[in-house]
Specification:
Layout (H helix, E strand, L loop, with lengths): L1 E9 L2 E8 L7 E2 L3 H4 L20 E4 L4 E4 L2 E2 H7 L2 H10 L5 H12 L9 H5 L7 H15 L9 H27 L12 H10 L11 H13 L7 H10 L5 H12 L7 H12 L5 H9 L18 H17 L4 H15 L1 H5 L7 H11 L6 H21 L27
Helix pairs in contact: 2-9, 3-9, 3-18, 6-7, 6-11, 7-8, 7-18, 8-9, 9-14, 9-17, 9-18, 10-11, 10-18, 11-18, 12-17, 14-17
The structure holds acetyl coenzyme *A.
Length: 425
């Protein structure tokens, strides 16, 4: 919707820049006319740039609000199953009973991976980081689904999304089993999504009676929901950018996994636990905070590009953390340590002035650890859950005409020079 214009005055000439309003959030200024004036816009870190229109997820960082298809994240986390949230992300609204049954059946039909895919694991060292294996193996899916994939066909795009959501727990669990030297467990389609994942992670052929603790199933499902989507974050933007070339979607998701791995993004959950290990005890917190303020280290799990008040996911995550530790009777000293860090940070002017609050990753590591998931798998959990968001954005992009993503630059290198032959240099 264009209602009014902004004006650009450059070199004495005026240009109209249409202002567009979405349904929520800041209006956006269409800056296409900047090019007519012979300029480009400069916005390192895409701090104010909206390269897409999207109807999937809305964040109001000031209010600490996160909506998926209009539903607040806390309501979804408390009342919906992760697969229902996936359905909403993919199709626009939560499913009714018949839609839910049909969707769950479709996902269950795709949980297994081609037997040939097992061979890819053997190419990795046993001590390889599971995220490195994920990038390789998910990218390798493109070798299994390429020749018959017609991206202009809606049904092909849909089955791709379902395949990815269905296979991610299987591949994630295979990464874990491989690094432990244990046999892979086949998916059990009578189990729920989260239960099946925990089964494939922790069951072994030696213990056919293995039962997954229902408290952990509920917590795992909630963790998946809390990580499902987060609008145009770094990894989702990577998936969209790769997808804008018409690339194979499995390769695009693999690119997203690579972007997620960094400690400024999804890698933060692993970095939080490493940081808590390094601090050791509550007595060392004050000294660590001084190091943060001297900018020698960052307080991992704190701060967010968009949330400048609180991260609503962190609130639900903290409650879930308490529930899981209570149910398992775990008295984790790292929780006490995390709470002390949070207490100091929320009072200290350094953090208050910079609007730094705990993000989703601050407490997720403590729950994942209680569930028995090793630190190196934390970001894999995030990738598994975020796949639904990535592929929903990819689908949204492919559902209407789009342009290849191709940013500009402000060139600061040498101006044109004359080539000098090697013997004359
Ligand atoms: N610890 C200490 N200081 C911090 C932190 C932190 N975690 N985060 C930001 N700051 C400071 C910066 O040094 C900067 O200070 P200055 O203005 O004095 O220079 C100020 O706060 C603003 O920070 P920016 O880096 O400009 O904020 P930006 O929006 O670019 O970065 C980010 C956001 C990357 C998340 C950052 O806060 C960070 O690195 N946090 C730690 C890693 C983390 O937890 N990442 C997970 C994010 S959530 C997710 O991806 C799921």
């Amino acid at each position: 919707m264009t209602e009014k214009n902004a004006k650009l005055l450059v070199d004495g000439k005026e240009y109209d820049l249409p202002i567009m309003n979405g349904t929520l959030g800041n209006p956006v200024i269409d800056v296409s006319a900047v090019q007519q004036a012979g300029y480009w816009t400069y916005d390192p870190g895409f701090k104010v740039t909206a390269p897409v229109e999207s109807a999937i997820t809305f964040i109001d960082g000031g209010k600490g609000q996160l909506l998926h298809r209009g539903y607040p994240i806390d309501q979804l986390a408390d009342n919906a199953e992760y697969l229902e949230v996936c359905y909403a992300l993919l199709y626009g609204d939560l499913p009714n009973k018949a839609q839910k049954d049909e969707f769950y059946a479709k996902v269950q039909a795709h949980t297994a991976v081609h037997d040939q895919l097992r061979k890819f694991f053997e190419g990795f060292r046993r001590d390889a980081h599971p995220m490195a294996i994920m990038i390789g193996v998910v990218g390798a899916l493109s070798a299994f689904y390429h020749n018959d994939l017609d991206l202009s066909d809606e049904e092909h795009r849909e089955v791709t999304s379902i395949r990815l959501i269905a296979k991610m727990p299987t591949i994630a669990a295979m990464c874990y089993k491989y690094t432990r030297g244990e046999p892979f467990m086949y998916p059990r389609n009578s189990f729920s999504y989260a239960e099946n994942f925990l089964y494939m992670m922790f069951a072994t052929p030696a213990d056919p009676e293995y039962k997954v603790n229902p408290v952990l199933v509920k917590a795992m499902d909630k963790i998946f929901t809390l990580h499902a989507d987060h609008e145009q974050n770094a990894s989702t933007s990577t998936v969209r950018l790769a997808g804008s070339t018409g690339a194979n979607p499995y390769a695009c998701i693999s690119a997203g996994i690579g972007a997620l791995w960094g400690p400024s993004h999804g890698g933060a959950n692993e970095a939080v636990l490493n940081m808590l290990d390094e601090i050791g005890t509550v007595e060392n917190v004050a000294e660590f905070m001084e190091k943060v303020k001297r900018r020698e280290v960052k307080l991992m799990g704190f701060g967010h590009r968009v949330y400048k008040n609180f991260d609503p996911r962190a609130k639900v995550m903290k409650e879930t953390c308490d529930e899981v530790l209570d149910a398992l009777g775990i008295d984790d000293p790292q929780l006490e340590l995390a709470m002390e860090l949070e207490r100091i940070a929320l009072e200290d002017p350094y953090f208050v002035e910079r609007n730094l609050y705990p993000n989703v990753d601050f407490y997720s590591g403590i729950i994942l650890k209680a569930i028995g998931i090793p630190t190196s798998m934390f970001t894999v959990m995030f990738a598994l859950a975020r796949t639904s968001g990535w592929i929903s954005h990819w689908l949204e992009m492919h559902s209407s005409p789009f342009k290849i993503g191709r940013p500009r630059q402000m060139y600061t290198g040498e101006t044109e020079r004359t080539f000098v032959k090697l013997e004359d240099r």
